[in-house]
Specification:
Rossmann fold, 6-stranded mixed beta sheet, 6 strands, signal
Length: 235
Amino acid sequence: MIRALACVLALALGGAADAACRQALALGLDVSGSVDAREYRLQINGLAAALDNIAVRDALLSSPGVPVSVMVYEWSGPSDQAVIAPWAVIENAATLNGLIETLLQTTRRDVSPGTALGTAITLGAHYLDQQPGCWKRTLDISGDGMSNLGPRPRDVKDAIGARGITVNALVIGADATVADPSESNALPSYFRAEVITGPDAFVETALGFEDYEAAMTRKLLRELEVLAVSELVAD
């Protein structure tokens, strides 16, 4: 079904849009001081496993004529960001497998302890500006805490949304054993109010780093949904 809809979209819009890809997807991973070595590995391996999920693979590879471009970077303090997987055009299984292997081979570097969310989303938007030919540009930012250094996310997000970029969030919150529900709800509410922006922006929540793979899988499937074609297809 995903493949058929992607083909319909490509045929319907291909002549009107001179696009190199149907979507550019930048993934920003939180590696600040609140993320320990075990949690770092759960996050990196969780993203790799989510990309290798059969439904996510099908969504990524559904229309190689108008592929998805993907890159991954890490963020922490205001001056402590790093690309761990540069832009890759996911045209075939080999390219996707290469991206997954790059993630699995990534090791943690020394980072500053700060949480500079405003800087992180500004940088992600800069990376997405490198993909101007894509029909849709999406920043997928993961985080386990509120911003405490650099510009506030609220002060930069509107300008990013105005450039046609959607910023979604994967909040790594308290785990299911937390007795106070407000502790689990506060961080998603913060990201919803202060971070996400753009068309159809949303927040996905992981109940601790152990839940990261499942949450990322849900998030990727939602982000990779084929662009709306209901108006292009007769009832």
